[in-house]
Design a protein that fits this description.
CATH superfamily of chain B: Aldolase class I
Distance between the termini of chain A: 22 Å
Strand content of chain B: 5-15%
Strand content of chain A: 5-15%
Strand order of the largest sheet of chain B: 1-7-6-5-4-3-2
Helix content of chain A: 40-55%
GO biological process, one term (chain B): ketone body biosynthetic process
Keywords (chain B): Acetylation, Disulfide bond, Lipid metabolism, Lyase, Metal-binding, Mitochondrion, Peroxisome
Subunit structure (chain B): Homodimer; disulfide-linked. Can also form homotetramers.
Strand order of the largest sheet of chain A: 2-1-8-7-6-5-4-3
Radius of gyration of chain B: 19 Å
Shape of chain A: globular
Largest interface: A-B, 64 and 68 residues
Largest sheet of chain B: 7 strands, parallel
Shape of chain B: globular
Structural class of chain A: alpha/beta
Oligomer: heterodimer
Number of domains of chain B: 1
CATH topology of chain B: TIM Barrel
Order of helices and strands of chain B: HHEHHEHEHHEHEHEHEHHH
Helix content of chain B: 40-55%
Subcellular location (chain B): Mitochondrion matrix; Peroxisome
Domain Pyruvate carboxyltransferase (chain B): 1-264
CATH class of chain B: Alpha Beta
Radius of gyration of chain A: 19 Å
Number of helices of chain B: 13
CATH architecture of chain B: Alpha-Beta Barrel
Chain lengths: 340, 289
């Protein structure tokens, strides 16, 4: 490819090219009309809502216990990037997930900016009440399409878990608190292997039916590929409208963006991701976890899809948290942009 | 996919047709994809390359496998032939500035040099593969027009290259740009003669490759363990990892003929030799450490 010195990255044209791709952008829709038009022409949604799960799903899988004040600062930084949904923490027992032991302090400590939603995980009624007392105004419940995973993860069957979630969602609706549902193992389970389409559809439908406004379909161990993503979505979309669906792809086998692209082509316009690709995979030692928000935004910007998110600010928040947990970022965009 | 393409007139199509193509293309893929492994060359290039003659002479050549080598000029071509090469590759670019900085001449001049190689190769019954760099962006010029890529590709094809590999050299491309570029090139060159060579510098390689497959491309370049960095972005990754590509293709039910386990072993071998970590996510996930 030729021996060109690294100094070329200072070249104005290259900077210009990157600026066009790493688009700073405003949240003002008007400025994006030509791009939106081209996104429409290619069969992609005009706008994609990114649900940032770094502080919860990301940190949950990091070994280093992050101090409470760092978590709060991290979330406050994310609030300034244009992200409209940031999952803050999980109201689970600290015995199960020590990283989330400070859930109440974090929830109380963050600055809740107007227009941004701060959902928290609430596995049961007890967690739900604690979350509300701490100031939560949106909750999430975590189901799975695999009996074995449900048993190992939350120590009960799918049916038993659904009953618990029903209690939570019912109480939430009673208090006008929106509830989001997650379905883990939508494309494969670390214990059972293949998961049937019927099971994923059944669990999703159950959560949607009990009142969850959105169902996030998770490729928990990242084994999915565009073919299996397509089949799964086709099945679920027979029961749930695409506007109520999201995808949560893990990048364990490097398939996340390709899977997300497939989901977008099928009409999904909500995508979960974690800044810096935080979080490993508890089922594959040494493997990566969540898809990196930066890399997702890069792709969406290139496609002319509006996200309202400032990529540079996300990279800064990513840099902050990586230094705090003493690890290198999993985001390729960040790796390419933060030069030595 | 072929039926859909025949329905498209070779002009700008209406919005409705475009929408129809995009939604129907979600599930249409080639049945078989040829993977061109560029690890030993493009991957290791960032390490050192002075021993090319010894390597070519030293490797065991298995029947049914092609072992192409890069020949930037006529002298290189002659040396390759002397060392036993049966296939060579020439490297063009869709950017004037890149060509100037890289091989110190204009695109037209470079094509004239390649023509010399192609004529000699034809006379010696040696196949020639053409590469076009910077198809989705140039580190010097920035944006590259799809029309320019189509022009250079067409010239290489008409000069006699049996296949043209379109390279996103700095990995800046995204699926939309890949689609626009391929649409332009497909007006000039049949899809059977095209390959894509995506770099993963911004994590977009597999998504871009998927887009190319959806458009009928069935030859993909990749590098075992994702070998090779990017000389234009320090610390950044380079090639798409063959393991991750094979994983996706297998999941899509596309035949490659490649044994993933053996590939992982080769990747582990070279990473150990280079004392570096693999860039392949599949390898990282299957590592038992």
């Amino acid at each position: 490819m030729g021996n060109v010195p690294c100094a070329v990255k200072q070249c104005l044209s290259y900077q210009q090219l990157l600026r066009e791709h790493l688009w700073i952008g405003d949240s003002v829709a008007g400025a994006l009309e030509p791009a939106q038009e081209s996104a429409q022409l290619s069969g992609f949604p005009e706008y994609v809502k990114i649900v940032e799960v770094g502080p919860r799903d990301g940190l949950q899988n990091e070994k280093v216990i992050v101090p409470t004040d760092i978590k709060i600062e991290f979330i406050n930084q994310l609030s300034q990037t244009g992200l409209s949904v940031i999952e803050v923490t999980s109201f689970v027992s600290s015995r199960w997930i020590p990283q989330m032991a400070d859930h109440t302090e974090v929830m109380k400590g963050i600055h809740q900016y107007p227009g941004i939603r701060y959902p928290v995980l609430t596995p049961n009624l007890q967690g739900f009440h604690r979350a509300v007392a701490a100031g939560a105004t949106e909750v999430s419940v975590f189901g799975a399409a695999s009996e074995s995973f449900s048993k190992k993860n939350i120590n009960c069957s799918i049916e038993e878990s659904m009953k618990k979630f029903e209690e939570v969602v019912k109480s939430a609706r009673h208090m006008n608190i929106p509830a989001r549902g997650y379905v883990s193992c939508a494309l494969g389970c670390p214990y059972e292997g293949n998961i049937t389409l019927q099971k994923v559809t059944e669990v999703s439908k159950r959560l949607y039916g009990m009142g969850c406004y959105e169902i996030s379909l998770g490729d928990t161990i990242g084994v999915g590929t565009p073919g299996s993503m397509k089949k799964m979505l086709e099945s679920v979309m027979k029961e749930i409208p695409p506007r109520a669906l999201a995808v949560h792809c893990h990048d364990t086998y490097g398939q996340a963006l390709a899977n997300i692209l497939t989901a977008l082509q099928m009409g999904i316009n909500v995508v979960d991701s974690a800044v810096s690709g935080l979080g490993g995979c508890p089922y594959a030692k040494g493997a990566s976890g969540n898809v990196a928000t930066e890399d997702l935004i890069y792709m969406l910007n290139g496609l002319g899809v509006n996200t309202g998110v400032n990529l540079y600010k996300v990279m800064e928040a990513g840099d902050f948290i990586c230094k705090a947990v003493n690890k290198t970022t999993n985001s390729k965009v960040a790796q390419a942009s933060f030069n030595a | 996919m072929a039926t859909v393409r025949k329905a498209l007139p070779r002009r700008l199509v209406g919005l409705a047709t475009l929408r129809a193509v995009s939604t129907s293309s979600v599930g249409t893929f080639p049945k078989r994809v040829k993977i061109v492994e560029v690890g030993p060359r493009d991957g290791l290039q960032n390490e050192k390359m002075a021993d090319h003659a010894e390597v070519l002479k030293g490797i065991q050549k298995f029947p049914g496998i092609n072992y192409p080598v890069l020949t930037p000029n006529f002298k290189g071509f002659q040396a390759a032939v002397a060392a036993g090469a049966k296939e060579v590759a020439i490297f063009g670019a869709a950017s004037e500035l890149f060509t100037k900085k890289n091989i110190n001449c204009s695109i037209d001049e470079s094509l004239q040099r390649f023509d010399e190689i192609l004529k000699a190769a034809r006379a010696a019954s040696i196949s020639v593969r053409g590469y076009v760099s910077c198809v989705l962006g140039c580190p010097y010029e920035g944006k590259i027009s799809p029309a320019k890529v189509a022009e250079v590709t067409k010239k290489l094809y008409s000069m006699g290259c049996y296949e043209i590999s379109l390279g996103d050299t700095i990995g800046v491309g995204t699926p939309g740009a890949m689609k626009d570029m391929l649409s332009a090139v497909l007006h000039e060159v049949p899809v059977t003669a095209l390959a894509v060579h995506c770099h993963d510098t911004y994590g977009q390689a597999l998504a871009n490759t998927l887009t190319a497959l959806q458009m009928g491309v069935s030859v993909v370049d990749s590098s075992v363990a994702g070998l090779g960095g990017c000389p234009y972005a320090q610390g950044a990754s380079g090639n798409l990892a063959t393991e991750d590509l094979v994983y996706m293709l297998t999941g899509l039910g596309i035949q490659t003929g490649v044994n993933l386990q053996k590939l992982l072993e080769a990747g582990a071998f070279i990473c150990q030799a280079l004392n570096r970590r693999t860039n392949s996510k599949v390898a990282q996930a299957t590592c038992k450490l």
